[in-house]
Structures are given as C-alpha cells and as structure tokens.
Amino acid sequence: MIRLEDLSHLQLDALKEVGNIGAGHAATALSQILLEKVDMTVPHVSIMPLSQVDQVMGGPEQVVSGIFMRVFGNAPGKIVFLFAEDEAVSLADSVIRSNLGAQTDCDFRESALKEIANIMTGAYLYALTRLTGFNLLPSVPALANDMAGAIINTALLDLGAVGDYALLIQTQFSLISRKINGHFFLVPDPDSLELILNALGVGTGWKK
Amino acid sequence: MAEFAVSRAPQKITTLGLGSCVGASIFDPLVKVGGMIHIMLPYSSMALKSENPAKFADTGLPLLVERLEQLGASRSRMFMKIVGGAEMFKIDGPDDRLRIGARNIEAVESICQEMSLPIVARSVGGNTGKSIVLNLEDGSVQIRMISGIIVI
After folding, report:
1. Does the domain spanning B4-151 belong to CATH 3.65.10.10?
2. What start and end residues bound the annotated signal peptide (chain B) (predicted)?
3. Are β-strands B12-18 and B33-39 bridged in parallel, bridged antiparallel, or unpaired?
C-alpha cells in the first residue's frame, strides 16, 4: 500500500486536479439549485498527522453542521461537508426560499442541507467517475450539528487503523450574495488512494 | 487525537472535540498525579501499521499507567473516568465502522478490568461531541458540550 508521506508532487497535483474537476461540477450543481453564482477555491490537498486534522476549521470546538456520506464502489471513501452553524441555516433557507425564523431544530432545514450535500456529491462523484472509469455511489447523507473536532475525528477514524496521516482534498465554496462558506472534504479509503492514482496514470511507478 | 499527557497538581489536562474517540482520565488522589489519553480505536491488532501506541485502547492504557508510575503514582490508588464513544452520525443500515464509539467503550472497559483499574465515573455513548478538562487538584473531570457543562 502507498504511504501518504511518500506521495510525489506529481501525484499530489493529480489529486488536486481530481478535486478541481469534481468540485467544479459540485459548484455548478449548487449554483443551479440556488440560481446564483457560486465561487470555489482551488482545492487544497493536504497530508497531515491525524492528531492535527481537527484544526482544519477554526479549531476542534468550533460548532459546525457536518454532513457525512460514505462512497461505495471501486474506490471507496468518505465525503464530509462542513458549514459554520449559522451559515448552514442560511444556506438551507435559501434553498427552501423562505425564512423559518428561529426554529433551530428544524427537520425541514436538515433535510434541505442533506439534499444539497447529496446533489453536490452526486455531481462530484460523476466527475470522478468520468475521470477514472470507476463506479462510485454515495450513501444516504447523515447530519450532525456539533463540535468540528468530534465530527472530523469520527469521519477519519478508520484511517487510524492503517497509518498516522490523513489525506484531505479540500475545497471551499462561497456565495456572492450572502456569507456562506462551505468546506468539502474527500477522504479516500487507504486502499483507494493507489487505485485512484493508477487510474489517473500516476501510479506507484511515478514515485518521486 | 491519539495522544496522551501526564502531569501533577495544580496542572489541568484537556482534550478537545471527542466524538467516537474515548477520553480516559486516570488519577492518583494521594500524590495528585494524573493523566489523560485520547483513544481512537479499540485494539492495535486492527492496525496494519502504526507508530503510535496512544491511538489504541490496548496499547495506550498500559503506556499511560506506566508513565504515571514514573511520576510517583501508585497503581493501587489509581481510578479512572471515561468520556466519549459517541455515535456522531446516525446512518441506517449495517455500517459497523460507524459504531466504533460503542466498540471503543467496550474495549476500554474490558482492558480496565484486566488491569484492575476501577472506573468510578463515565459519560459515554449518545451522539454529542465533548471536550474534557481533568483537574489534577481533585481528579474531577469537566465535560463541555454545545448544550452545556457537567462535571464528573
């Protein structure tokens, strides 16, 4: 199995490109739901010690809405969306196109957020499928409003069984009309990483 | 995550954002020496490769006890409090990997029994994230959640 610490620049660039194309599709999907422009950042591919992963979004105690999905198929993995809690509410309301006021535990909103994640993930995975020839399908989304650390650590747990590092392909989305920044993470399962790199033509033969 | 620390009064030890992980605090009230470990997974045999024994209950807990003994704590006086092991995401269907919280709790409890470490308080399971602070003056553990604070 490929060690994350040993990935070459070329391999990291290839993964970044995967993130770019996938996130581009996902941003377009979001833009079509909201009927407004969605900006996205160039993806950031990072390899970090598991003990530091919870620093990625304003520290481990930052309260966020996290949506979690497993990816099934030829190259399984996980997808996690993180939004600051108030921005998640605002995003859900713009999809529902109404203001539900201060009902915080609103099933309708959670459902809207899950649906947004579902549609964006579908678009992302479609792009990845086209690039790699793999068959990839998302699970039903699960949602939690809680500390970022608790959410991210849970999403990464089974990586701990194979190594001490995590690979994150991270993209940030933002809307022009209101302040909503979403973070999107694709976390390939350890065995999937090598499969993806091979499918992209930068397999282990390309090491360094 | 997957780290541990030991110290003595008047210090405090903290770990932030526990989800499915288990935060185990061990304290010796006589010498006021204690430690905390943030356990990610139950057994090191689950691992293909890891250079970090603190990640697993079965390798981390004995390591923590050993370090506490080096600081003058006695095994016979030590007691333990455990927090965490939540199921953060409720997903329908059999995905065992997401029930890791419950498996972490089971592993910690059975290892403590083998090591004769009494567990005197616990706040485990559920589906909320927790941050904990172990106060080495009295061995109390403060638990912060987004819904409020409790002390065990």
Report:
1. no
2. none
3. unpaired
